[in-house]
User: What shape does this take?
Amino acid sequence: MVADILVGTCNWADHTDFYPLELERGRRQREKLSYYARYFPMVEIDTSFYGIPRPDVVDGWVARTPERFLFNIKAFRSLTRHEREAGQPRRPTDDEVRDFLAALVPLRESGKLGAVHYQFPPWFTSTPAARDVLLETRERHPDDIVAIEFRHRSWFDNDAWPATEDLLRELDCVYVGVDAPQLGSGTAPPILAITSKKLCIARFHGRNRRTWYRPSGPTSADRFNYLYSAAELGEWVPSIREAARRGTTVHVLLNNNRSNYAVVNAFDFGALLDVALPRPPQPIVDRLVERDAAVPAWVAEGTAPPPWDSSPMPASTPDAAQGTLDLST
Assistant: This one.
């Protein structure tokens, strides 16, 4: 049976030219998640990489989304060895591990936890020590879907990929296929692979070669400043469809979070993959016209999104703001 394909973006709060103006300032910014969830069935929580959210904050996110909505959540940065001491990656503290696991509880108990996403840094190379970290990661989440994203070519080049793929299969971890600038050693080739029958993930960072390594220190919005064309996204469609045809659910996530680019491209993927998304709001249509010099035919074919209550939410709800082809068998 053909499995589901779910399309969403990597965080919800950074998008501009998408939300109503009344949600762009003050306390009402926390209502962006409810508005976002009218259009998409899932999102990736990105800020958990920079700071671990309190469980009551996560409870608020759960409460503001529909029953079948899903969250993927990025692991805190020390768990992926992004934190350094004396120039060397450091292990997470016991408190960091405890607090991150506590943040997962509301998602898991509500049935809204998709995958726990471990995005490893470019200096996480294919070594025995790194493979031990992957084993430790799997053991930390015995009942969760764990997704692994690599950012170094040593996991792929010089015939390394088959061993990497076998390791992920042995650990029952989801390989995260990425679309990113093919530049230097700190990126991954565009491979989509099923390494766990539970899930397959394709993640899109944009193709901005000029800012990928951030030599002058631009923000993440600069790094991911790239609006895909429909043709570029279409390169991934056969592999995504084939993964779903083989019975594996696929998450398609857009991380090109400059302006409304990720949202525009998420709607593009909805059309390309025949995923039923509501008709996009006018700012998204305007961007499509700016890019394509015409309104795509699929825009008129979409249905209206669910009604949205534009009245302010009660102030008592806690919250925190949101803050990145082959099909192998």
